[in-house]
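This section describes the prediction task in plain terms. A model, or a person checking by hand, is given the sequence of a single protein chain and must write out its three-dimensional structure as a string of C-alpha coordinates. No templates, partner chains or ligands are provided. The sample shown here is typical of the held-out split.
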Amino acid sequence: MRHFYKTHGKHCYLRSFQTKCRKCGADVLYWECRHGSKIFFNYPPYGKLIRHYCRHLTTNLQRKTKFPVIVKTPKGLLEKESPSCPMCGKLFKNPKDLNDHLNNLKNQDALHEDFNNNNLDIELEYRENNQENSDKYNVYYKPKFGKINIKKKK
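The expected answer:
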Protein backbone atom coordinates (compact mmCIF):
# COMPACT_ATOMS: atom_id res chain seq x y z
CA MET A 1 0.00 0.00 0.00
CA ARG A 2 2.73 2.43 -0.88
CA HIS A 3 0.45 4.67 -2.96
CA PHE A 4 0.93 7.69 -0.74
CA TYR A 5 4.63 8.20 -1.58
CA LYS A 6 4.09 11.17 -3.94
CA THR A 7 4.13 13.65 -1.05
CA HIS A 8 6.68 11.98 1.20
CA GLY A 9 8.65 9.72 -1.15
CA LYS A 10 9.04 5.94 -1.52
CA HIS A 11 11.29 5.67 1.51
CA CYS A 12 8.78 7.30 3.92
CA TYR A 13 6.36 4.35 4.28
CA LEU A 14 6.33 2.76 7.76
CA ARG A 15 3.23 0.55 7.97
CA SER A 16 -0.42 0.13 6.88
CA PHE A 17 -3.16 -2.31 7.86
CA GLN A 18 -6.94 -2.76 7.74
CA THR A 19 -8.92 -1.75 10.82
CA LYS A 20 -12.31 -0.27 11.84
CA CYS A 21 -13.08 3.37 12.52
CA ARG A 22 -13.84 3.92 16.22
CA LYS A 23 -16.49 6.60 15.57
CA CYS A 24 -18.56 5.17 12.71
CA GLY A 25 -17.48 1.50 12.56
CA ALA A 26 -16.57 1.55 8.85
CA ASP A 27 -13.68 -0.49 7.42
CA VAL A 28 -10.65 1.77 6.94
CA LEU A 29 -7.01 1.46 6.00
CA TYR A 30 -4.62 2.84 8.62
CA TRP A 31 -1.47 4.34 7.00
CA GLU A 32 1.55 5.66 8.87
CA CYS A 33 4.84 7.15 7.68
CA ARG A 34 8.19 7.65 9.36
CA HIS A 35 7.57 11.38 9.77
CA GLY A 36 4.61 10.74 12.07
CA SER A 37 1.71 11.19 9.60
CA LYS A 38 -1.18 8.90 10.45
CA ILE A 39 -4.12 8.82 8.05
CA PHE A 40 -7.23 6.68 7.58
CA PHE A 41 -8.29 5.81 4.02
CA ASN A 42 -11.49 4.21 2.77
CA TYR A 43 -11.14 0.43 2.48
CA PRO A 44 -10.70 -1.36 0.08
CA PRO A 45 -8.35 0.98 -1.80
CA TYR A 46 -9.13 0.93 -5.53
CA GLY A 47 -6.28 2.74 -7.28
CA LYS A 48 -5.96 6.17 -5.69
CA LEU A 49 -6.39 6.30 -1.92
CA ILE A 50 -9.35 8.35 -0.66
CA ARG A 51 -9.21 9.83 2.82
CA HIS A 52 -11.87 8.52 5.21
CA TYR A 53 -14.40 10.95 6.70
CA CYS A 54 -16.79 9.58 9.31
CA ARG A 55 -20.43 9.56 8.28
CA HIS A 56 -21.34 10.74 11.79
CA LEU A 57 -19.11 13.82 11.54
CA THR A 58 -20.23 14.78 8.01
CA THR A 59 -23.90 14.84 9.02
CA ASN A 60 -23.11 17.11 11.99
CA LEU A 61 -21.08 19.45 9.77
CA GLN A 62 -23.86 19.56 7.20
CA ARG A 63 -26.43 20.37 9.87
CA LYS A 64 -24.32 23.25 11.17
CA THR A 65 -23.76 24.77 7.72
CA LYS A 66 -27.33 24.45 6.43
CA PHE A 67 -29.61 27.45 6.61
CA PRO A 68 -32.79 27.10 8.69
CA VAL A 69 -35.97 26.23 6.81
CA ILE A 70 -38.33 29.20 6.62
CA VAL A 71 -41.99 28.43 5.95
CA LYS A 72 -43.97 31.36 4.59
CA THR A 73 -47.74 31.52 4.53
CA PRO A 74 -49.18 31.78 1.01
CA LYS A 75 -50.59 35.12 -0.07
CA GLY A 76 -53.79 35.68 -1.99
CA LEU A 77 -56.90 33.60 -1.50
CA LEU A 78 -55.86 32.14 1.85
CA GLU A 79 -55.31 35.46 3.65
CA LYS A 80 -58.97 36.44 3.70
CA GLU A 81 -62.12 34.39 3.64
CA SER A 82 -63.24 33.72 0.10
CA PRO A 83 -66.50 32.19 -1.08
CA SER A 84 -66.27 28.47 -1.74
CA CYS A 85 -68.59 26.03 -3.40
CA PRO A 86 -70.40 24.06 -0.68
CA MET A 87 -70.50 20.99 -2.91
CA CYS A 88 -66.93 20.69 -4.28
CA GLY A 89 -65.00 23.11 -2.06
CA LYS A 90 -63.55 25.18 -4.92
CA LEU A 91 -62.50 28.70 -3.86
CA PHE A 92 -63.54 31.86 -5.72
CA LYS A 93 -62.57 35.52 -5.54
CA ASN A 94 -66.12 36.81 -5.28
CA PRO A 95 -69.70 35.48 -4.99
CA LYS A 96 -70.42 36.27 -8.67
CA ASP A 97 -67.81 33.74 -9.80
CA LEU A 98 -69.34 31.19 -7.43
CA ASN A 99 -72.80 31.79 -8.96
CA ASP A 100 -71.34 31.29 -12.45
CA HIS A 101 -69.69 28.05 -11.30
CA LEU A 102 -72.95 26.70 -9.90
CA ASN A 103 -74.92 27.67 -13.02
CA ASN A 104 -72.39 25.95 -15.27
CA LEU A 105 -72.37 22.71 -13.27
CA LYS A 106 -76.06 22.42 -12.38
CA ASN A 107 -76.78 20.26 -15.46
CA GLN A 108 -73.55 18.25 -15.33
CA ASP A 109 -73.13 17.24 -11.69
CA ALA A 110 -75.80 15.72 -9.42
CA LEU A 111 -74.49 17.44 -6.29
CA HIS A 112 -74.58 20.89 -7.85
CA GLU A 113 -78.04 20.17 -9.29
CA ASP A 114 -79.38 19.30 -5.82
CA PHE A 115 -77.89 22.49 -4.45
CA ASN A 116 -79.52 24.55 -7.23
CA ASN A 117 -82.91 22.88 -6.67
CA ASN A 118 -82.92 24.14 -3.08
CA ASN A 119 -82.62 27.70 -4.47
CA LEU A 120 -80.32 28.89 -1.68
CA ASP A 121 -78.96 32.40 -1.80
CA ILE A 122 -75.17 32.13 -2.09
CA GLU A 123 -74.40 35.68 -1.08
CA LEU A 124 -76.45 35.32 2.10
CA GLU A 125 -74.70 32.03 2.86
CA TYR A 126 -71.31 33.66 2.21
CA ARG A 127 -72.08 36.40 4.73
CA GLU A 128 -73.21 33.84 7.34
CA ASN A 129 -70.04 31.80 6.88
CA ASN A 130 -67.86 34.87 7.32
CA GLN A 131 -69.63 35.89 10.52
CA GLU A 132 -69.78 32.44 12.12
CA ASN A 133 -68.53 29.04 11.08
CA SER A 134 -71.79 27.19 10.56
CA ASP A 135 -71.79 23.52 9.63
CA LYS A 136 -75.02 23.75 7.64
CA TYR A 137 -73.61 22.28 4.47
CA ASN A 138 -71.06 19.60 5.24
CA VAL A 139 -69.05 18.65 2.21
CA TYR A 140 -69.34 14.91 1.77
CA TYR A 141 -67.79 14.80 -1.70
CA LYS A 142 -64.18 15.98 -1.80
CA PRO A 143 -62.43 15.42 -5.12
CA LYS A 144 -58.64 15.10 -4.97
CA PHE A 145 -56.44 17.28 -7.15
CA GLY A 146 -54.56 15.42 -9.88
CA LYS A 147 -56.76 12.31 -9.85
CA ILE A 148 -59.69 11.32 -12.01
CA ASN A 149 -62.76 11.35 -9.79
CA ILE A 150 -65.80 9.41 -10.95
CA LYS A 151 -68.91 9.94 -8.88
CA LYS A 152 -71.61 7.32 -9.25
CA LYS A 153 -75.14 8.69 -9.51
CA LYS A 154 -77.69 7.41 -7.03
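For orientation: The chain has two domains: 5-65, 76-148.
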